Amino acid sequence: MPCPSMRRSRRPSRPHDLVPFLHSFYESPRSAPPGPLLEDMPSPRLFAVHTPFTALPASVPGSGCRVVYLCRDPKDVFVSLRHFLDEIKPGGSDIPPFAEAFDQFCGGVSPFGPVWGHMAGYWEESVARPGEVMFLRYEHLKEDAVGTVRRLAEFLGCPFTDEEVASGVPEAVIALCSLDRMRSVQANQDGVHGTGRLSFKNTAFFRKGEVGDWKAHITTEMAQKLDGIVEEMLRGSGLSLAGK
Questions:
Q1: Which are the catalytic amino acids?
Q2: Which residues form the Sulfotransferase domain (predicted)?
Q3: Which span out of 44-48, 51-55, 239-243 was modeled with the highest average pLDDT?
Q4: Exposed site from 29, 131, 173, 204, fewest CB < 10 Å?
Q5: What is the tens place of the pLDDT at every residue in 20-41?
């Protein structure tokens, strides 16, 4: 989300460059050209992470940075992850069959740890430090995009002015960041992410973004199994995904 000094239009050749992954500054393949140095980026800086909160640097809680976490129904998380891995797997590699992968997911096997632990970590921090950690639900974002974007702007200290609200700036931001808009960007249609054997087409990042798409891919019994596991694992945390 842009702060006052960042409100001008920014159109990079690769939209993902607007919000680079923090780990990309430290894990670039040796064969890749050197990227920008973290210290050289102007403040305020904006980064994305998949990292569990417990794995973030110990300096984060005292740094004053704002953390925004987006939580999604674990069933949709699994389906989205499965499709993404199908798209990006290197040539000749293999991934487990769908049912086996689902059982692994229910057992806590996921690229960044058990999904319930990931959610609980950020949830607990948002309760302890609501002024620094914001916990959002993807389903709520889809239901009320304008309200969510306005709350996000307030949280980041960059609230929309009355004039911006009246002229429809929040709606314009939503349209600019929509899945259809991002999918239509030429760099996302024919661009490539990564290098060498680990490269894949940018189109892999954009599928449906729908709430409840899991219903087209997993059975009711599978859904109940995962819901039960997540509910049990979150018990006592104060976080409930009931009604998702």
A1: 50
A2: 14-238
A3: 51-55
A4: 131
A5: 777 766 665 554 555 566 777 7
